[in-house]
Amino acid sequence: MIKDKDKKDNITRLLDDEPVGMTVQVVRVMGDGAFRQRLLEMGFVRGAQVTVLKNAPLKDPVEYMILGSHISLRHSEAAQIEVTDKDAEFCDLEDAFNGIVETTVAAVDPMADNVLRVALIGNPNCGKTSLFNNVTGAKEKVGNYGGVTVDSKEGWFTIGGRKVQLVDLPGTYSLTEYSPEEMYVRTYIRDNHPDAILNIVDAGNLERNLYLTTQVMDMNIPLVVALNMWDELEKSGDKLDIEMMSRLLGARMVPVTAYNGHGVKEVLEATMEAIDESEQETRHHNVNYGTLIEDCLKELGAMCPELDRYTVLKIIENDQHAIQLLDGKENGEEVKKTAAEMRQRIERDFNDDIVSIVTDLKYGFVRGALAEALTPNPERATGETKPGYSLDRLLTNRWLALPMLLVLMWLMFEATFTLGAYPQEWIESGIGWIGEWIGKAMPEGILRDLIVDGIIGGVGGVLVFLPQILILFFFISLLEDSGYMARAAFIVDRIMHRVGLHGKSFIPYLIGFGCGVPAIMATRTLENRRDRLVTILTVPFMSCSARLPAYLLLVAAFFTANQGLILMSIYLIGILVAAITAIIMSKTFLKHDKTQFVMELPPYRKPTARNAVIHMWSKGKQYLQKMATVILAASIIVWALGYFPRHEGQTPQEQIENSYMGQMGKAIEPIVEPLGFNWQMGVSVLTGAAAKEIVVSTMGVLYTGEADADEESASLKEKLQTATKPNGEHVFNPIVAYSFMLFILLYFPCIAALAAIRREAGTKWMVFEIFYTTGVAWLISFIFYQIASAI
Amino acid sequence: MDIGTIIQTIVVLGIVAVALVYVLRRVINTTRGKGDCGCGCGKDCKHKKSAGKNF
Fold it and tell me: Structural domain boundaries of chain A?
């Protein structure tokens, strides 16, 4: 039993007051609710040692090390944690180690629903999706930061002739009721009854990761623990006696290195054995919480035998979701009353609140087991960071961090431009050659016009940017896999906080640079609905990859110097508009209290070429698929609208101006003229509402159709550079091009993104978003164009 | 109008009609939250199951 040894003699302080470099011992976490629970789950339990590592470049947040993990906490949050000297004789959690107890439950037929189902669960960023991809052959997105998976993903594998379904669940530190991902995982396990749970733990951070294991153990489902990143544990010099650890925890443990597949077959075999044994045996191993709580569990368990030990413990913990399960039961009220009495008795005996007691006991159990089975590297001093954090000296340095972040972004965009230009030219000349060849080989007529002007002009105009898309995603993948993205969040957290955004919003924003749809879905990790709404409504301002072809085309055509910088400025303006929008919303109609946020900073990892190529290829494949479907169909429709009705004796210029598309363009011209756009640009943004790549394909069709015969083989870039108005002036110049890029960046999210907004926030907010984004786009383009033209 | 031009016009109008139906269906499905959103991450994307590995 955990008892305070000398509490009166120790002077307690607040963690926030501790200087950098100081190591202290946690006394208690103040406050209540989700934030307190999250801190406890992450290891801020009594007696845990915390080292203050550094302040972020903008002074807030602060990086701390606890249980070997690096955690970012804001000053206001650190002020909620009471600490004392690290050597103070205060309490020893290892005293709480009582080993395991065995419980007997009814045997379950694993094939009851004709599907063998294994659920993958674990802490965020412990490698679940890497293992899932390795086992199922899927190519789900992975990243070296938590929160990449927000939904369950299903895949299959075959072992020993048996087909098994593997379900990848979102990463979670615990199975309490405080955050949506925790509830999602908990509800999934309760409703779907997987035949086994494969718990992935980061072998380099066992203490924190095994806390979740202690909760899973109580669910009485066959359990296997995969000790992932085993290679990193070996490199660190720590030694783990797997056999002893398995015995102490009462669960099979198998070392695995998910990214290269080492140990994967063994862990799957162990999982199948666990399932097979559960057919014969009905015994399960659980954490022993000591006599008092074990007696309560037995007594209450006997009153509701249909509930598992995990749920019974949760009822004692006053977990509202667990208590709801008693509603409608014959003895429901009696169980609730007994549980409340037990809770009071336990709290009185331990002199603490029930949540802290159970968390302390679980951590005590883990710490006790690790004290027996894990031998830390004797050469590593207490408080010294584990390998994988040395780059932080440079990348999160107080003076260098922000400039380095900007330089890295600039490098990424500059490389996208310069490296991508060569293959782009090859593709461009290839497409030009095909167009020319078809033009000569086919007899003149409507079919030739469709193929050359509609299909090749439209699809080809977008296809040429494939190399740049691949290069950009290659760099993003490197940054994500290395762990730098979490540092970027650490560096800019104070700014996010200032604009009224939740720290967790950073992840959806990051995903938004790829595609708005998964970014909007990723807001599910935000607990507070108002935080979610602000994030959902501002995510579309993050420039998604579908807009990139338009920028690349316009920057290459109208800016000769600093192309990477100009491209970067567009992305930065998107971020700025999102920030201003967030400030306005969070100070007016979406006003709310500031939400706290704990973020884990993962160790830096060497990005693997395989992963970067897979990520790059999967983006490239999606891009090509889109070319062959939506862009192709849209190009055909745009061509038809620009081709019909036909009038004899008109020049190509007159023909397109009198077409349906021309008439449509002329109708909206008064709206877009103040922004410097002509009707072709107006029509392009209109068709681009379906998918942003269509902006370029529409321009490809409209400008090809307009071209003279001798310009047929010229690239779209050259056609835009030479396009003239009836008065002989050039249609485009750098000011018009930039104004056009601003409009494309900010206006109407595509249909898919709007559908996602409707799903996640409702129709009212979707309609708001349509008008708000388009209004902001018009206003900013207008201000820019008018001021820049006047200067 | 010669027969060749008529056939070409019919073929082209057919292609345009197919494209139109495709885009409309796609837009309606996406708005209703059905079908692949086109970016590889829509609601149905998780149903694109791979056959998986054989161990």
Answer: 7-91, 100-374, 405-790
Could you tell me if A360 and A29 are in contact, meaning their C-beta atoms sit under 8 angstroms apart? no
Query: Which residues, including other chains, have CB under 8 Å from residue A427's CB and lie 6 or more apart?
Result: A463, A464, A466, A467
B33 CB within 8 Å of a chain A CB: yes
B26 burial level (CB within 10 Å; 0-12, 13-18, 19+): buried
Strands (E), A370-518: 374-375
Question: How would CATH label the architecture of A100-374?
Answer: 3-Layer(aba) Sandwich (3.40)
According to the model, what pLDDT value does residue A248 have?
A: 86
**pLDDT above 90 for A766:** yes
Two structure tokens written together for A644: 């019909």
Q: Is the Cβ pair B23, A153 closer than 8 Å? A: no
Question: CB neighbours of A299 closer than 8 A, spacing ≥ 6?
Answer: A338, A342
Interhelix angle A751-761/B3-31, rounded to 10 degrees, is: 20
Residues on chain A touching B38 (C-beta within 8 angstroms): 622, 625-626, 629-630, 691, 752
Q: Model-level pTM?
A: 0.79
Q: Could you tell me which of A576, A507, A513 has the C-alpha nearest to residue A535?
A: A507
The pLDDT tens digits along chain B (55 residues) read 788 889 999 999 999 999 999 988 887 877 776 654 444 343 444 444 555 677 7
Task: Grade residue A488 by pLDDT with cuts at 50, 70 and 90.
Answer: confident
Which candidate in B5, B9, B12, B34 is best for mutational testing of the A interface (most A CBs within 10 A)?
Answer: B12
Position A281 scores a pLDDT of 57
The pLDDT of residue A178 is 72
C-alpha torsion A430→A431→A435→A440, nearest 10: 0
A653 — phi, psi (to 5°)?
A: -60, -45
Highest mean pLDDT among A314-323, A388-397, A750-759: A314-323
Q: Domain A7-91 - what CATH class? A: mainly beta
Q: How close is the nearest chain A Cα to the Cα of B24, in Å?
A: 10
* Residue A202 main-chain phi, psi, to 5 deg: -80, 110
Burial A597-616 (b: 16+ CB within 10 A, else e): bbbbbbbbeebeeebbebbb
